[in-house]
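hi!! sorry for the late reply, been swamped w classes. u asked for the two structures so here they r. pasted raw, havent cleaned anything up. first the sequence of the first protein and right below it the tokens
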Amino acid sequence: MQDLKKFSRVSTKISSSMKSVGEVMAIGRTFEETIQKAIRAVEFNFIGFSQNNFSENIDEELKNPSDQRLFAIANAFHLGYTVDKIHSLTNIDKWFLYKLKNISDMEKKISTFSSLHDVPDNLLYGAKQIGFSDLQLARFIGTSELAIRTERKDRGVTPFVKQIDTVAAEFPCYTNYLYTTYNAVENDVNFDDKGVMVLGSGVYRIGSSVEFDWCAVRCIRTLREKGIKTVMINYNPETVSTDYDEADRLYFENLTLETILDIYEMEKSNGIILSMGGQAPNNIALPLLRENVKIFGTSPEMIDNAENRYKFSRMLDKIGVDQPQWKELTSLEEAYAFCEKVDYPVLVRPSYVLSGAAMNVVYSKTDLQNYLDMAVNVSREFPVVISKFIEEAKEIELDAVAQGGKLVMHVVSEHVENAGVHSGDATLILPPQDLDPETVKKIESATRKIANALNVTGPMNIQFIAKNNEIKVIECNLRASRSFPFVSKVLGVDLVKMATYAMINTPFEPYPQMDDRKDYVGVKVPQFSFSRLAGADPILGVEMASTGEVACFGKDKYEAYMKALLSTGFIRPKKNILLSIGSYKEKLEFLPSVRKLHELGFNLFATSGTTDFIQEHKIPCKYLETLDDGKIPQQKLEYSLTQHLSNNLIDLYINLPSKNKYRRPASYMSRGYISRRMAVDFAIPLITNIKCAKLFVEALSRCEDFEVSSNDYKTSHRTAVLPGLINIQSFFPTITQSGTADFSTITKSSLAGGFTSISTIPVGINESIKDKRTMSVAQSNCRTNAYCDYSLGLAATSANTSQLAAVIQDSTALYVNFDSLGADAKLESMAQLTAHLKSWPSELPIIAKAKGTELASVLFMVNLHGRSVHITNVMTREDISLIALSKEKGVQVTCDVCVHNLFLSKSDIDSEVLGTPDDIQALWENLNIVDCFSVGTVPYVLERDHKQTEKISPASGTEEALPLLLTAVSDGRLTLDDIALRFYENPRKIFDFPEQRDTYIEIEIDRKQTVPNAGFENAQSTWSPLAGKMLRGCVHRVVIRGQTVFLDGTFFGDATVGRDVTGMVRIISKNQALTTPNRRLSMLYTPQTSAVTSVVGASQTLPPTIPEKETLKSPRAKTFSEIPITQRSPTFTPSSSSTNDQSLTSLMRGSALSNIKDIAEELEDTEKTQLSRAIQRTVQQSLHISASPYISELPTSLTAAVSKSPFFRKHILSVKQFTRHELHLLFGVAQEMRTLVERQGVIQLLNGKVLCSAFYEPSTRTSSSFEAAMMRLGGNVVSINQITSSIAKGESIGDTVRTLACYGDVIVMRHPDPGSVSTAARFSPVPILNAGDGTGEHPSQAFLDTFTIREELGTVNGLTITMVGDLKHGRTVHSLVRLLSQYDVKINYVSPPSLRMPESIVEEVRKTGVEQNEVSDLADVIPTTDVLYVTRIQKERFATLAEYEAVAGSYVITNKTLRRAKTHMIVMHPLPRVNEIDPEVDFDQRAAYFRQMKYGLYVRMALLAMVCGRSN
């Protein structure tokens, strides 16, 4: 697939250089069949290998091939070229040429038949076997595609489904790799699944690539997750959707109407999803609907409303959403006039392109004239659309999902480039960084209105422009957009999944909770292929040119943009930068960036005008001569721009061209173009957009080096971010042994375990930190190779009370030990404890390791002395119960539990440091009593007892702690909040650990790992009590002060970044002690019934620093708590204070934790606020649409139109009563009726009102339509006719009308006598609606006819309407012509001379200035006709049978008649018909007469509502 028409100066010739942007694959059983499928797959308007409109020199094309060679061969065969001649010109193997000639010969044979019925069965079947589509056969014979389809099905000519054998016949094949063919006699598969069909995106091209394949695959996977069988149809071998294991059925087939209908009928599919494959499936949405195919999601009629510029524009005006001014113009004079009105610049969209030009922005009348003269043919047949182009406007993208017209998810992204750059080429930023909140609100409001007006269910995309906080809509797509994958991956919310649920009406959570990442930005940048497209000008414009895209994430838009740009192959400049800036305005705008480049040390070069400007502002810049064609003498080469570019002396070229206000011929090559082209050809990085250039320079100044962070990847594991953990009990067995290197092992293992701070236990195996000497040795041992921060404490001994004063300043806590480990630091009596309590500063904590009676004594003593205490390594039921009781009584006590004691018991390993299973159960039951987790001495003692004499690792168990807890999280026993609370928040509050700025850990919650026999490697152990145990969860990354020091098992950079924070702890404690005499308090127990549920709820940010209200500055400061709130462990609030001076609660006044209740209340208030907002949002958005009935509220526009109707209680007798404004008001209400009927079926607008239907002539459509309209509005109907009513007895019209007025609120009447309905209106006290009065008027038919034209073609203005048949007696055409005279139309009258349009009506219309033509031959006007309005020759209007038979059958519309008609015209008929339209025309998509009846329902509903008014 080559997509070269978008690029001027690019050769389409095929060579050794690759130019294609995509490819197709076709599967068939013959070469002829397969090549035709492949041709149709390349482009939707390629119908196969047959005669085509290739008009270039065929011989030249055959000799020197381009992307059109295959079409040239088809035409060569048609012109009589032989295989030998074509072979001599092309050197294509004759085998292929003979196969292609077979196709051409069959085409000629089929084309000899003038009627499908004359084609023999065997020839029809042979044509299908050779690969001809229904559309091809229709064009050969002169009929319609659906007529061919109906005929061949009637004859039993249908395709078979064959399966590709992927196992080479060795085994039975079950692969659902399918294709259709006529070269078979049976199907290879059964059709029992009745699956949902998803249409893929087809061939990759500029504008439609892998992003739509991602959407289709995600849709398929979502359906399969719900147990729904799926059918994928696509033909692109590059896609994931064409992997045969992605869907239950994969058809490698074309996305054409014929193929989709064939598969739909064979599979007996439950429906089709169109909205995931880009524009290709949307193109056949309406034809599929008209063939009664069930479409999931937004109605194809609404898709048409969004894609038809007239309908969409009217809708926006009606709902109050602004849009740029635009107009479709059919002459140069009109174009110039409109441009003068709206002022230049304007955007020009031609409908017919001559020289490869397409959409373009023009800036002046001369520019417009040059563009139109050289590129576009402007006429009524080929109109041009011109829109006001708003300069300096920001373009904004909105992707959304809606259900039943209500938004359930929306995402706003911003473009870096201003409007004027195609959205596919734009740089996209999410979340938006520079949008005014007011602008965002307006965008969201407009989107809600549009979604409701279009009754959207599924995905949608809207593009806005904004300037000065005013927004305008420029495009709306009711399908998944190019940016859906990007926004889904940035937000972590699968918009396609939500859209799929909405379309299949499956319950889901609207507006799901997302991470509010303040330092997380995604940027998508385009990838261009200009280097492969020789001659292409590498500038951005309104036509898309990019062939790919990349997206990267960063902490801000600058980092993300630089990463994304480098990912495209862009090379960062090192030394020399060349500048060429066209306009003075952009020179001024870019000046600060130029100055910044100079400050960054770059050498600046520029072209003449740019150099002068830069030097005027005192910035050094070297001038380079503009392109010189090699004529500059050698001595001036140092000033040559050409030489600098060609010799790669420039690292970056920033070229900002002036707007093309003076258009030159396409062949003209400016110096700017040549220099840009040289930059591309010599692989010099090039930037051509001012906004991108400014962003790049700023990113260049900010982004030195990049670090891979959690922002930069996705994982299949659940990930979360926690603050750097604190181990308050880290055992250093050789802490006072001179020269030991164990501390490096301990901190390295701690870092790998997620601990960024540790507090060492001052007790060693031989000697403890007890005086100045041992403190000095310990400090020396810790200073070297510390991988994490640490603090030191002092051990209380029986003899060092007097020595503590000399080393208090070097410690953070006093460690009171009643354990046998560390014998020199073990206290023997409570008297020794009392002495230490008296001498130790009150602002510093005391840590006690005690159990049983010793624990009770410690609690008693600290309570007696009014001190707080932290109990470490609690392990038994008795001890935790005692601490719980003490907390309840107000004792200032906190405690920690060794992680291993929560998982290992004596039944696992018989050790004194482990509790019984009952103890473990008690610890879990009383988890709300436990303030902190720790590692402690338990793992060391277990390893020591196991090894006896071998060297014991100083870091035993450290890396196992967090995975053990994460396993409990996976099991539902803990939450991440529990871990953060006990390993970070409480340790900081209790021990005054300082803040570690930009410090956090990333964990993978459910990643499985088995503990090795020797434990984790960083501990350097040879045994682990957990050996062979499967744990879930691990540390992925550790960041300390913004630097990644550990990543997935590897230490990075200067990992030894640990600091001694003992002094900082002392400062914090001392400062707080100045205002809080009693510094320490207990984390008091709160009964379960009143506990605060969770400090950090699901996906809420953890507070990582000392100030409780400060948030962690990390790329992903989030946790993801998976356990329901009711299962989470409660946190702690203080007990109510007591006035009793003896109460221990009084000790907490003024302490560091005295505000915990306020914190908890603040968190509760936050949760309540969030809940309130969520409820409010739910109500506002009507989120649970699928679960609740639609609330019958009428749209404001409809209510206003009905309540202020100009037709209220008025007779509707003639179209002459209506102004054009009133017509549009009526049509607007009809559109609202259509939407409401589709949603609700019945609208209780006229509830209690009665319509009296009086038809004096036979009628099916009009009478049924009015009756159905009244019932749809909630009213009732009373019907009479001339046979069963008193009319048969001679009752007058006046009496009948007066009688009916007594029973009803409105009367609809038809009568054979002209003027009779007007007569009846004189007697009626209630409104009368004229449903036809003889040969007079039929206003409601004219209304519905005009409404049909608007709905089918988008507008009435500018159309050519041809009326055929009995124009003399046709009251429908009489009313319609009068109505059309209010529009800018051209009317053709085609009829026998005796049935021509009455002269009175022709004269009446002539006075309005409408062009009218009377012709006798329909063939003369059919090629230019937009609306072919056919009427029957009414037998009942003729005086004699002979008169009727003389004109009957004068004009019969057949498929042959329509062969020369426009593709997008329509055929209308008021019905009933006799023989004036052949039934075969019914299968033509242009046949609108039955749809016309449906539109009539909505128009008559609107008419009744506006005449009757709304019921109270």
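now the second protein. again sequence first, tokens right under
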Amino acid sequence: MGHSNVWNSHPKNYGPDAVFLVVNRDNLLGGKRKQRGLTRVWVYWLKTILRGKMSSDRQWMYKRFMNGILIQEFLNGLETFINFACSQSRWMDGDKIKCPCNNRKCQNMSFRDVNTVRYHVAKYGFVPNYFVWIYQGESTMAVDSDQNEGSESYVCSEEPSNTYHRMVNEAAGADFNMDDMDEPPNPEAQKFYDMLKAADNELWPGCKTHSQLSLVARLMSMKSENHMSEKLFDQVTKLMKEIVPDNNLVTDNFYSTKKLLRGMGLPVEKIDCCFNGCMLYWGADSDLISCKFCDHPRFKKPPRVVEKRQKTKVAYKKMYYFPLIPRLQRLYASNATAHDMRWHSEHEVEQGVMRHPSDSLAWKHFNQIHPDFAAESRNVRLGLCTDGFQPFGQSGQQYSTWPVIVTPYNLPLWLCMKEQYMFMSILVPGPKNPKDKLDVFLQPLIAELNHLWDVGVNTYDISKKQNFMMRAALMWTVSDFPAYSMLSGWSTVGRLACPYCMDKSDAFTLKFSGKQSWFDNHRKFLLANHPFRRNRTAFRKNKTVTTVPPVVRSGDDILTEIQSLGLKKVTEMDATRTNGPICRTCGWRKHSIFWDLPYWRSNLIRHNLDVMHIEKNVFDNVFNTVLNVDGKTKDTFKSRKELNDYCRRPELKRNEATGKYPKACYTLDKKARQTLCEWVKILKFPDGYVSNMGRCVDMKKLKLFGMKSHDCHVFMQRLIPIAFREILPLNVWKVLTELSLFFKELTVTTIKTDDMVRLENDIPLILCKLERIFPPSFFDSMEHLPVHLAYEARIAGPVQYRWMYPFERYLRKNLSIFKHPGRAFGRAKKRCMTDEEYKAARSYVLLNCEEVAPYIEYVYPKWLQMAHKGRGRGRGGRDGGHGRGHGRDSSSILRPSVQSVPSPTHPIQTSPSPSPSLTLSPSPLSEIRPPPIVPPPHTSDPSPSSTPHSTPSDVVPPFTEPSTSSSIVGSSAGSAKLVIEIVDGSFFPSHKCSAIITKSFKKMVDSKAFSWKKVSKSTKKTYFDDFQSKAAERYSDFVHKLKIVRDRPDFIPEDKWLEWLQYWEEPEVKKKSEIASKNRRTEVAGPGTGMSRHTGGSKSTIEHARELARELGRDPNFYEIFRKMHVKKANGQFVDNKSKMIADLVEERVTAASQPVEGSMDLQPIDYDPIYLETIGGQKKQRVYGIDSKGVDFCSSSRASSSSVTAAVDEAVEQRVMETNERIAVMETEMKEKDQQITLLKDEMQQMKEVNNEMKEMKNAMQQQMTNMQSQLVALMQHMGHRVQTEHPPVGQPTTDPPANDEDDDIGLDD
């Protein structure tokens, strides 16, 4: 009987055991049976036999309950099923098994952990008629009915009959030899297995639960998942070492644990590289000490202090390379993955259907070109991806690192592209983008890939117990469009950005926008007789298209062109000088290093276009243009200006009468935008389907912001046809729906070749329809690239194996800078700061934040005076010296806390300058929520040099909460907490702090406490002891609210409240209140000038005067000090209008006074001090405006009287004052008129609201009457014996009338 006789005969001719043997042997050999009809008969007969034998033994599977309680027989059988499923590693996904419960989400389709499977089966039961556990691996096994239920045994007996021998030999073929013996592992693999065996010893004699390896692996897993610090890890291991019996193998610290696992881990190479990224000190260049391209030294020059004793030289920059070979060998060293690495050649392929890259034309073409490589199914096919990654986030330090990730495609559908099979091979250091020099860092990987192709590596396959020469080949690369240029060498910017069209592109530069446009670049992809090709009006004016689409060039043609141009690789000498002139004449920028791979030219697809980023960019352009988002829409003024130069759109021409452009049909008016945003805001999705899009809606600007790539993916494919159905014209909605369906069909998990051919023909037509609607500025390179996506899918297979989604998730999860040991871990947005970071953050708040500056300047010095009585006082402050301070600078008291800032390895660092201010890296603090701030323990001996954390023993720390609070993140029992939040990058106390301040007022209120000055000292002390902050300011707000409301709160007794009311009604108090209110509203220098300010900062005026004296070599005058204190250093402007007006008046007076007298040509000497005093009104209480008393005493210039100023100057000043008063009077009159108009508008609005309410009431009454009349009519008709049918229009039926364009008829694009 030949090879096919077994399959051509009916299975009834053999026994059930023979069926098992054939099916099992066929699976082991990986044979592909073409007679699918007879194969199905064999499988059906096999299942029929199994159900007959198993149904009697496994009836317990469908007898779960007895009197509502799970019976013990079912529970025992369930454990048997779990044990069997866990023993079949090749049918598992890591430690997960397929769940056979009857829940619609499972049913042997989803992998779950063991506990979840046990719970699901107990809750939902098994799927019906599942007596044979084929999805857990039982299809290749037989069950002996004579054994206990649930036990299994292989059918192959040690002494098979001659019939079985003959049948198996005929089915297996001549190449099969049952006498083959298993091979031992090669020395490298054996070394690894021996190490595992040595580490798999008992922890102590008699320990059966854990080995040394299992304990160490478990501890390292816990450290990784919970982000344990090394200190905590050491403490845990030491505790375990003390608990377990003596003579144990428990490691006692992190170092010994890591050392034990280092031999089992994967190697890493640190390679020195040039500081400018020109070369690697690797291979033949490993001994160089300077760059051969730019002569930059390799090593840093050590400081003189450590120059003699330093032995190891430190390189300026290093790259990390993780060899690929050991990782690929591990895939065959594990039972969990060794068999799956052959899945690509053993699975059944359906003609014309692609579910995996192995089903694609590119894979099959590679097998045809390289049959020797394809003959060994265990050879590995690889994909490469790279992308820029910012470890400090978008708003942090600008540092860009580029990881290079390699992933195998041999694995089956459910394992391919999973995170555990993505191998980071190279980590390119920052801080800059390597750009074209990325090839420099790819050299070790390319060399290893060449070795894997030319020679291979001896590898042990544990699933077959064989050694074989494993080879590997790189199929393609995956990257976004900018990285496409870095990998391929073809420029992706400018007119030649398309890597398929190349020099056959019809892109052009727009006249006014100055950008490249791919408008009218897609008619050449249509059929030759399509009417769009002959259209002269809908596309570019007076232009027809007869050209054919560009042919996809082969790798041999491209390599020949690159070599003919003379382009060099960036690793070669003089590459920059040679490639520079060539780049200006073509789209090639370099000779890519990937051409060093011998098989690279034979690949059909070498670099993939990333569907993820293309889809997101297309969606952004469509959505922002339709919603007319300012700054992001493609329908701009310049676009409209140049529109009719390229195409005929007379309806969008500029209205010469109004100077505006009319609204386009593809944009929404304000009402439609508001409707759309409200709909998106309340939209609900299934859990885990998409993020909360409601957070992306800005109802004020009527736009969507902050949408991630997956959000755009869902909106593009699922929501656009629904969202725009009723608010856009039909022709616009149809083409946008077609575009949405194109991306939806393109990204399905199972694609058909016929569907991809149809999409190749549809997408040019869709783009041409878009060109008839949108302006030329809409079509950038991202709108052009979809025309090539269907071709790539037809050649390379499903999109989900060639886009950036899995790689982006891998980078975001595994390369985050915020996953430090010892922190609580969240979504990379929140973490708790360490004590050192907390101290640095608190010091930053106290020293650098503008929001806390008033506290530092006023309240905190006063508190220090109270806490440190008799330790030095002084005078100082702002303009006029109205503030009092302490003799010592507050920064000197805060300085000790700055010294406790963590080392430069932490995100928060101290400034190298001697100034006490801090430099705070915004990246970790702008994306995290800091922990509660914990006040330190009280000090019994306060001193001026104590840190801000320390407080006197008789003073309670400010803003503390009860120690029992446990709702705060990071809080612990027995400690008082203060929450500090980060809002827009600045630190702010939480609302709880302000609430505690207000609560302190409610605890005790004096009867005479009409203002802060009236509050008794004992009550003030209570307030200060309670919160220690701006008590005066807060109390004034507190009293002011009570005075306005005049409603007695519960915490003020009635007798005290009557005294307060009586005091407020006194004439003197009223008059004083009116004067104070008037003074607060008064602007000394005129309307809009505001309160006076200065730029002196925390320095006193006398310090600024001394600095000026050192700079000038003499004592400064009043005016020079004034300018020093009121002019901004950044732009040279005054801080407010008042100071600018004073300076202008002084300059005028100085100019007038310096004029020469009659009969003389010499300018008169000027004494600035009298002029300045005359301008500001002289001294008041021994103070001068802008200069305090110390500054006045310091100045040694004479105090001249105002009589030295000439009468001419007085007249000029008086004239200017009169003009200013007249302008103020006119402005006051206009303000009064506007107030009257506002009052009238408010009255009209109130009347309209009343009329609206009346109309609503009338409408409700009429509806009620209509309902009553209808009920009476129905009753009457029934009484007369007629059958009544009432028809109601469907609720929510859309109207055919288009939405009214009320106020948005013009888009308002002016010159």
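hope this helps!! also noticed smth abt the second:
The longest helix spans residues 1207-1279.
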